[in-house]
Amino acid sequence: MNIFKRIAAVLMLVLTVSSFAADKLAVAEPVGKGGVQAGDIEALWGILESSIHSDEYRVISRASLKQMLTEIGLTNSSDLVNLNEKQRAQLGKVSGVKYILITEVSKFGSKLNCTLRIIDVSTGEIDQMRTANLRVSDLDELADRIEDTLDKLLADDKQMARSALLRPNIRLVVIPPFLEKDFTGQLEATLLNNGVALQNLQSVNNILERNNLGRLSSMEPKTYRKVGELLEVKNLIMPTITRFEVAETKYYVSETGARGAYYIGYFEGNVRVVETKSGNIVASIPFEVQIDFRQLKRSVTRDWTEKDYGKYMITAGMQQFVPELLKVKALK
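RESULT FIELD:
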């Protein structure tokens, strides 16, 4: 009997420790605007609560949330968006709850627009790095996307500080068909291997295309904030390529009658890092690579195509500018 009592005691201790290890999260009742039905609001509230699967958070009951709001003088969730200083101070005294998730959903033409925000209870402030906006066709599509979005909003600070690598702005008359794909592929892999947190490259391209946002090189600074919210990133890494050329020089040696050609590669441009919150350029790193391919063994380059020369130049360019890019504090 004593053995069973000891086992029960250990299990109780484990459960108790587990309950205190997880931070508490409150999911406020979604705020509906623009003709959203009460039934949809209730359904969305349930979807939000059931979509949080992080081991780091435990969702508190609706009754506990209601009591917490009453204590700081609030009657409904919509008031959480505009807390006054006194209410923020009172909210900061609430123990055990780390974050409150507040959600607004409205109709936008035939679409539903859903905005999710996280309030840091310790300060009463909305964390601008933990906000997301989803535009969907209906509640079913929203339910499909909500879980992944919540995972990102509740991620740790390292994950929240991720950046987005954008397609290069290529200023060439004739663009080699492999250039964009090989450049972005090599740069993405190099940054990830060096610990830079990045949004998935394919996701970035899809989101920008879905929102009719093409090349961002000429965008006004204030628009970068919108892009940052859409991509859920802190920084944009924006490469520009101004020269990418393999020049052929033919030669003739009169003494021997030998004829041939040698190649010089030129790869130039820059990489800018833009902070999405302010639209400020926090770094601009130029690169200028010139490669005399005669320095490589003939046995290496004998069967090379234009693409092989190009890939070599891309790798050489990375070796020049990536070390400087990794020093940028915003990317750490």
